[in-house]
Amino acid sequence: MQELIPINVVIGDRTYRIKIDPTDEEVVRKTLKTMNDKIIEYKTQFAGKDMQDYIAMVLLWYATQASSGDSLPGLSTSVLESLARMEQQLDKVL
Predict the structure, then answer these.
(1) Looking at the DSSP assignment, which residues form a beta bridge with residue 17?
(2) How far is it, in rounded angstroms, from Cα 28 to Cα 85?
(3) What is d(CA 30, CA 13) in angstroms, rounded to the nearest whole number?
(4) Which of 10, 29, 27, 8 is nearest to 19 (CA)?
(5) pLDDT (0 to 100) of residue 5
(6) DSSP secondary structure letter of residue 84
(7) The predicted structure's pLDDT at residue 50
(8) What is the DSSP letter of 87?
(9) CB within 8 A of 51, min separation 6: which ones?
(10) Taking the model in full, what pTM does it have?
(11) What are 27-35's contacts with CB under 8 Å, separation 24+?
(12) How far apart are CA 51 and CA 55, in angstroms?
């Protein structure tokens, strides 16, 4: 088993330090880019009170994509597991 590496990730306007498997780094970074691009897209389309509103919209979008069976670009099982771990870490912080 490879050792986890720490990376800094930015979601919206906040930075989080997480540990991931080195083989997942590229996919996690691509996923973060997709998420942040979607946040920017929603900020231009919808009125929101704060960044949390936009992050919630993006999470709903991802969950809807996953529930409908649509393929999410670049999301393998290991990435989904990494996202689940990130969600747990975010829950601890929030």
Answers:
(1) 8
(2) 12
(3) 17
(4) 8
(5) 94
(6) H
(7) 87
(8) H
(9) 12, 13, 14, 39
(10) 0.67
(11) 27/74, 27/75, 27/76, 27/78, 27/79, 27/82, 28/79, 28/82, 30/73, 30/74, 31/74, 31/75, 31/79, 31/83, 34/73, 34/74, 35/11, 35/62
(12) 6
Q: Which structure tokens are listed for 94?
A: 């929030």
pLDDT along the chain (94 residues), means of 10: 88 92 91 92 85 89 76 61 78 72
Instruction: Tell me the C-alpha distance between 69 and 37, whole Å.
Output: 22
Q: What are the Cα distances from residue 36, in Å, to 1, 69, 81?
A: 30, 22, 19
Quickly list DSSP for 24-70: GHHHHHHHHHHHHHHHHHHHHHS--SSHHHHHHHHHHHHHHHHHTTP
- The structural domain count of the chain equals 1
Paired tokens of 72: 């999410």
Taking each helix axis from N to C end, the angle separating 77-93 and 25-45, rounded to the nearest 10 degrees, works out to: 60
Range of the domain at 11: 5-93
